[in-house]
Amino acid sequence: MKRHRLILIIALCSVLAADLCVFAAADKCEVSGELKKWHKVTLTFTGPEAGEDAQPNPFRDYRMTVTFTKGQKQHVAGGYYAADGNAGETGAKTGNKWRVHFVPDETDSWKYTASFRTGPDIALSSNPKAGSATAFDGAAGTLTIAPGDKTNRDHRAKGLLKYVGEHYLKYAGTGEYYLKGGADSPENFLAYSDFDGTYDASADSGSYKKVGTFIHKYEPHIRDWRPGDPTWSNGKGKGIIGALNYLASEGMNSVYFLTYNLDGGDGRDTWMWTTSKVRDRFDCSKLDQWEIVFDHMDGLGIMLHFVTQETENDRNLGGSAGLNPIRKLYYRELVARFSHHLAAVWNLGEENNTPDKDRKQIAAYIRALDPYDHPITVHTHNNKAPGFYK
Question: Where does residue 228 rank: exposed (0-12), middle (13-18), buried (19+ CB within 10 A)?
Answer without folding.
Answer: exposed
